[in-house]
């Protein structure tokens, strides 16, 4: 059976995380009612991000150049690195407006049961970078859950004898949650209240 164009759009939208059939249907009809230019703008933005997005060669944030805007910004505190699990976590920390240092994206968290070992993450790149770039503090902002805590402890052990101050964001975030869903105030307080590991 051949799907109609609206059904096809609804099916494609349900592939997005958190989008069920009803939400996809609402979005599909909203897109249909949009002016052509706006709908085309969304389509072009999706096509462009898929064609041009890549990972920063320094911090592994998503960018469309070799080095992302944050790594190229000379106004940032280059002695501090905030370590996060995913590129999406950076925008959450940035919205809090408190941290003005650099970032490092691990591309996940340790989970031996799922086959995610240190070699599959960007942990050694962090250790190399911290030793090479005169870093004074590494702030571990991994998610406050079992995997994030295990990852933070592992990195802290690797950096133990380097003379670099290793801190962990405070537990202003609820245990078992993801940093991506934290509000700016909670995340800001968590960064301000970080502690040495």
Number of strands: 7
Distance between the termini: 59 Å
Q: How large is the count of helical segments? A: 8
Structural class: alpha/beta
Bin the helical content: 40-55%
Residue ranges: pLDDT <50 for 5 or more in a row?
A: none
Kindly state the mean pLDDT as a whole number?
Answer: 91
- Main sheet properties: 5 strands, mixed
Beta-strand residue fraction: 5-15%
Q: Output the CATH class name of the largest domain.
A: Alpha Beta
Which of globular, elongated, flat, extended, rod-shaped describes the shape?
elongated
Question: Layout of SSEs?
Answer:
Blueprint: H1 5-13, H2 21-33, H3 36-52, E1 54-55, E2 62-63, H4 69-72, E3 77-84, H5 87-96, E4 101-105, H6 123-132, E5 137-140, H7 146-159, E6 165-168, H8 184-192, E7 195-196
Helix pairs in contact: 1-2, 5-8
List keywords for this structure.
197 residues; alpha/beta; Helicase, Ruva Protein, domain 3; Dna Topoisomerase Vi A Subunit, Chain: A, domain 2; 2 domains; 5-stranded mixed β-sheet; two-stranded antiparallel ribbon; 14% strand; elongated
Q: What's the short version?
A:
With 197 residues, the chain is an alpha/beta fold. It is built from eight helices and seven strands; from the N terminus they run αααββαβαβαβαβαβ.
Commentary on this structure:
- The chain is of the alpha/beta class and 197 residues long.
- It has two domains: 5-52, Helicase, Ruva Protein, domain 3 (Orthogonal Bundle); 66-196, Dna Topoisomerase Vi A Subunit, Chain: A, domain 2.
- 44% of the residues lie in helices and 14% in strands.
- It contains eight helices and seven strands, in the order αααββαβαβαβαβαβ.
- The strands form two sheets. Strands 4-3-5-6-7 form a five-stranded mixed sheet.
- Helix 5 links the parallel strand 3 and strand 4.
């Amino acid at each position: 059976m051949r799907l109609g164009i609206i059904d096809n759009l609804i099916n494609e939208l349900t592939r997005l995380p958190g989008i069920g059939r009803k939400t996809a249907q609402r979005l599909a009809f909203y897109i249909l009612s949009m002016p052509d230019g706006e709908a085309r703008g969304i389509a072009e933005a999706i096509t462009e991000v898929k064609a041009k997005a890549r990972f920063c060669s320094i911090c592994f944030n998503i960018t469309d150049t070799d080095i992302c805007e944050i790594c190229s910004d000379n106004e940032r505190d280059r002695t501090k690195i905030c370590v996060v699990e995913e590129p999406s976590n950076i925008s959450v920390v940035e919205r809090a407006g408190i941290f003005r240092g650099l970032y490092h994206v691990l591309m996940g968290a340790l989970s031996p049961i799922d086959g995610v070992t240190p070699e599959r993450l960007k942990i050694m790149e962090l250790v190399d970078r911290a030793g090479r770039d005169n870093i004074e503090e590494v702030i571990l902002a991994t998610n406050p859950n079992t995997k994030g805590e295990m990852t933070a402890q592992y990195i802290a052990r690797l950096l133990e004898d380097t003379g670099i101050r290793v801190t962990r964001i405070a537990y202003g975030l609820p245990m078992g949650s993801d940093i991506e869903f934290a509000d700016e105030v909670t995340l800001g307080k968590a960064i301000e209240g970080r502690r040495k590991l």
